[in-house]
């Protein structure tokens, strides 16, 4: 078994590398922005158990060193790996899936197999099918039952690697991929049926960030950025407020699968239990988007599940903002969707349980209710 290097020549994405040098450099001191709209009243979230419509649990495929995006040779077969994005699979999908598709096309194969029916598999299938390839997607679990369907999917790709483990090469790659992914989502904003829109997001903290680092991919990706140290949301010591993209998987993945099918991609429900079964596929180029499944199929012992639990509340059309805030034991976040409000804030590292946790539910319902109470006095 030999390994071939990742290719980086990408049509239409070359400009993304211009900001790579900014990955780890702290920003110079910046005067706090005036609180232009911080003092305006905003609708509180009604965080109560009687408003819960469903509670779901998913396992994020996390690698401390970051996602895997590379080609690997198995005799006459080439496998393009595209997995391990932690909780950022949806947000990074257009970046790494476009690169994976280009790498697959560069093998010269016309007929390409894709493993995995989540957002990475769907996006890779769409890109390749639109490039004229014959594409077959093999997956044990298909939309709407994938981990991607459970994602919170605010466009803020963070916590997808351990800073003390990830290499400088990965950090530069991640910076570029993040910018590419953002660019890939922009054509879908407010397009009917796709569930992609801008939202005003607040990230609040108990302490002022000094030094302050750029937001993922660069501050220029977040219009209207304000740095606030007074009249902040919920009365915390520090707030970064900006616009970012909100992606609703209930809508977006449905349209993505339809687009891939219209482009000619075929979908086959199939479970693979060994690498030998994968290599028995007739296609000589295979794109591996199996997430946590790569641990068994390809022996990746670095993969770690990070358990995430979300509760959906009844819709509140008047809530037109999102936030991330400190909570007891873990950060809390709230994302608004047409289908309802999403409450989250759990990161069970190494936890494989898919059963809803009563402790997590109580912590999130009470924690978000406490933030709503703080809002009345901030």
Give structural notes.
This protein has a domain at 64-194 and 248-302: 3-Layer(aba) Sandwich (Rossmann fold), CATH 3.40.50. 23% of the residues lie in helices and 26% in strands. The protein contains seven helices and 16 strands. The strands form two sheets. Strands 2, 7, 8, 9, 12, 13, 14, 15 and 16 form a nine-stranded mixed β-sheet that branches. Helix 1 crosses helix 3 (168-185) and helix 2 (119-130) runs parallel beside helix 4. It is globular.
Primary descriptors:
378 residues; Rossmann fold; 7 helices; 23% helix; alpha/beta
* Helical amount: 10-25%
Main beta-sheet annotation: 9 strands, mixed
Which percent band covers the strand fraction? 25-35%
Order of helices and strands: EEEEHEHEHEEEHEHEHEEEEEH
N-C termini distance:
60 Å
Short characterization:
Helix content is 23%, strand content 26%. It is α/β, with parallel strands linked by helices. The strands form 2 sheets. Strands 2, 7, 8, 9, 12, 13, 14, 15 and 16 form a 9-stranded mixed beta sheet that branches. A 7-stranded mixed beta sheet has the order 1-3-4-11-5-6-10, covered by helices on one side.
């Amino acid at each position: 078994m030999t390994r071939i290097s990742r290719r980086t020549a990408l049509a239409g994405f070359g400009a993304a590398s211009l900001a790579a040098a900014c990955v780890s450099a702290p920003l110079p001191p910046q005067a706090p922005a005036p609180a232009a709209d911080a003092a305006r009243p905003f609708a509180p979230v009604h965080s109560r158990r009687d408003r819960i419509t469903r509670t779901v649990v998913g396992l994020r495929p996390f690698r401390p060193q970051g996602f895997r995006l590379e080609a690997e040779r198995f005799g006459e077969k080439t496998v393009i790996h595209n997995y391990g994005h932690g909780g950022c699979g949806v947000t990074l999908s257009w970046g790494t899936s476009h690169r994976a598709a280009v790498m697959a096309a560069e093998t010269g194969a016309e007929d390409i197999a894709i493993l995995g029916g989540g957002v990475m598999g769907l996006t890779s299938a769409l890109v390749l099918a639109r490039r004229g390839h014959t594409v077959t997607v093999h997956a044990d679990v298909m939309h709407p039952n994938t981990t991607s369907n459970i994602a919170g999917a605010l466009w803020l790709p963070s916590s997808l690697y351990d800073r003390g483990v990830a290499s400088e090469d990965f950090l530069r790659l991640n910076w570029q991929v993040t910018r590419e992914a953002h660019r890939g989502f922009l054509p879908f904003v407010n397009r009917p049926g796709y569930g992609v829109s801008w939202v005003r997001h607040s990230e609040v903290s108990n302490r002022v960030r000094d030094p302050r680092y750029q937001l993922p991919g660069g501050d220029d990706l977040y219009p209207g950025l304000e740095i606030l140290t007074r009249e902040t949301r919920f009365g915390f010591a520090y707030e970064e407020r900006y616009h970012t993209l909100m992606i609703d998987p209930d809508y977006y993945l449905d349209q993505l699968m339809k687009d891939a099918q219209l482009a000619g991609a075929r979908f086959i429900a199939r479970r693979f239990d060994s690498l030998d079964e994968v290599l028995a596929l007739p296609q000589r180029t295979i794109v591996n988007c199996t997430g946590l499944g790569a641990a068994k199929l390809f022996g990746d012992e670095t993969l770690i599940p990070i358990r995430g639990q979300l509760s959906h509340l009844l819709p509140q059309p008047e809530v037109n903002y999102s936030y991330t805030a400190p909570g007891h034991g873990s950060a809390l976040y709230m994302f608004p969707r047409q289908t309802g409000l999403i409450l989250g804030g759990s990161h069970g590292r190494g936890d494989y349980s898919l059963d809803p946790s009563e402790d997590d539910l109580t912590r999130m319902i009470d924690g978000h209710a406490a933030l709503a109470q703080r809002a009345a006095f901030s």
